[in-house]
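Methods: example folding runs. The two proteins below were folded one after another, and each record is reproduced exactly as written to the output file, sequence line first and structure-token line second.
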Amino acid sequence: MDSRLPAIVSRLFHVNAGDLTPESGPTTIAAWDSAGHMNLILALEQEFGIQFGDDEVGELISIGAIHAALARHSVTS
């Protein structure tokens, strides 16, 4: 995983990118609430030039899940 995904999460939720793990998500990042989740989705779509399906958005609840979704979209995160 390159630095773009952790950098986006770090910027949006004001956490140290180096502290993020595949398990990091709303249960471990206090600022990752529903509004933050939508901002994250929009930032990811813009950064990677993709669009997540409605069914995917609710499943993107950890760094690992996002990384897997990006891989399915054939982008490097």
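Second run, written to the same file directly after the first:
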Amino acid sequence: MSKAVVLLSGGLDSTTCLAQAIADGCESTAISFRYGQRHTKELTSAANVCKFYKVPHVIIDLNLSSFRSALTRDDIDVPMDREGELD
């Protein structure tokens, strides 16, 4: 049996990747990262996906405190409505 390791954020895209690996018959394991996100919603969602599919879920802790990011810092606003930036 083939094996797959899926980087699982808990969102639609990575959940679809995990579902496809399972559908392809792969023995699958999901990996998520705890990187100091502002909330645990992503990790909770990833854990729920793993429970649904009955696959192991490994959470790796990363220290990203040296990076300034709106994803991890409460004192930085999350950019919104950035119209035209992808043009």
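Comment on the second run: The radius of gyration is 16 Å.
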